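U., I forgot to send this yesterday:
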Amino acid sequence: MGSFELPERSRRLLATLVREYIDSGEPVSSQVVAHRSGLGLSSATVRNVLAQLEEQGYVHQPHTSAGRVPTDLGYRAFVDMLLESRTAVASHADVEQQLRRQAVQTPLMDDLLAAVSHLVSRAARHVGFALAANDAAILQRIEFIPLDGSQVLVVVVARSNQVTQKVVDAGERVRPDDLAQAARYLNTEFAGLPLFEVRDAVQQRLRQERTLYDQLLKRALSLAHSTLEQLPNVQTFHVDGAASLLEHGPHEGVSTITLRALFEMMEEKERMIHLLNAYIDGPGLTVVIGTEHTSPDLRRFSLIACTAIDGSTTRTVGVIGPTRMHYSRTIALVDGTTQAVSRVLRDAH
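Result:
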């Protein structure tokens, strides 16, 4: 039975039980549900309804004499009810003000997204993340920064203030002046073109045998190629708040092994990006609860994300936390922050 097929009385009692469990973290008795629901029902009537909800898989009893707690299906029904009755999102003015200050200090999208993931994580007290993708980004400039030995940091800045960085081994130590000259060449040749066109042009020039006679030109093209070869799927991803998971852990039934697996996934950002791309197929809210996750590592957690699309740019802001999270508050936070990011970036450009 789907959550929308439940009788109204069952829906309201289930919602009451979920809210009480989220607040207390303790199994909820029928007496508490009867009192908190405001429906004027007796404890016996509520007990019968909860027994039916248990048979249908929405709640369960950890112990025979204990109250009941929601299952993942119960959380899903609760979230569906929240989304069904949702009104306009309240503005998170404090978050937007902080983002505007960040945009004044440095307008780069990469820095702004890092600030977003931190602010959302701190406000939700869970893991916060921010993801941006731009399939039609226009090259603004390329920079080569010498590191230790033969390593070079290649920085690609798009007009959307989206930054891609990669450490590349040049094969030999390169003088800073030569790197600056190589960057000037690339910027003169390719600035103002879409990044995927730059990638294709760099590949084509590398294939031309005449470039072998100019070592500086060849080095410039090779460094650019090593950074741009992943295009057009250029995505910027930031995640923050891993320590917040330790505040929950065993209290939420999350084992140390599960926490370690999630930590590893967060460190391997490509895995996280792949997972998010699989979940998000358009603008709006995405809520994935517990066993709905495709990854076994996340089945003790819920994910709430909101996606906005501005032209060719897609941005997603989200939270990962235990299934016993404050869904209403977190949905409002994620949605409001996504809208704030869109306004800040529009005003900045």
